[in-house]
Structures are given as C-alpha cells and as structure tokens.
Amino acid sequence: MNFLKYVGAELEESQNDYSDEFVKRLQKSVEKIKFDREMGRRYMLIEELMKEEYNAGKAEGKTEALGNAKAVLEDLLSEIAPISDNLKGRVSSIKELEDVMHLTIKAAKADSLDMFEKELEKMGY
Fold it and tell me: Rounded to an integer, what distance in angstroms lies between the CA atom of residue 51 and that of residue 118?
C-alpha cells in the first residue's frame, strides 16, 4: 500500500518517509538517478562553457598574432624605405595571417617598396 501511495504522490510528497524499506530503496535510487542526471547536465554545461572560452581565446590569439605580424611587416618595410600612410593602410587592411606571412617573405626579398606594392596588388590589397 505504501508503494502505491509513493507512486501516486506529487514530487514534494514523494520524498516523505513511507516507513517501507522497499519504498526507501526506490527513493534512494530515484535520488541517485536525479543526481547523476544533474551532474551530467552540469558537466555538459561546463564543457560547453570551456569550449566557448577556448574558441574566444583562440580568436583573440589569432587577432593578436595578426596584429603582431602586421607590425613586423611594417618594420621590415620601413627598413627598405619610409612607408607612406597609403601603404600602411593597405597593410592594415590585410585580414589573413597567412597573407601577412607571405607578404613578409616578399618584403624581405624586395629591393624596393615598388616591388613589394606590386605583390600586394597581386594579392588584392
């Protein structure tokens, strides 16, 4: 009879003491399952938050690396000749780190800024 009362009980009432060993074991089992589900949900939430933080850090790192690479490129170009504001703006407009790296190699090999600017034009900058 206690079992039937337990099964038909509302959530709050289902946690009452029914003075029945079988019902107590059921209550413990249900509590454990709920706890495990809650822990699973928490782990999933933590995992999702960690992924978001990782991706944000990764994006921030890429942005920082791109900025640093552009600064190195500008320094390298300034060794060849003074850089115009127009050329600085074109270098600043580069969006991909790979492009900056490629252009840095070209700048290191360039004899003049004109040679470099031709390569910049080829790449669409």
Answer: 42
Residue 77 pLDDT level (bands cut at 50, 70, 90): very high
Distances (CA, A) of 116 to 30, 72, 98, 100: 71, 15, 16, 12
Q: Total structural domains in the chain?
A: 1
Q: Is 80:113 a contact under the CB 8 Å cutoff?
A: yes
Q: What distance in Å separates the CA atoms of residue 117 and residue 49, rounded to the nearest whole number?
A: 44
Q: Is pTM, for the whole model, over 0.90?
A: no
Domain range for 93: 2-122
In the chain, the amino acid numbered 3 is: F
One-letter amino acid for residue 15 of the chain? Q
Buried b (16+ CB within 10 A) or exposed e, 45-73: eeeeeeeeeeeeeeeeeeeeebeebbeeb
Measuring CA to CA, how many Å separate 89 from each of 64, 70, 86, 93, 101?
A: 18, 11, 5, 6, 17
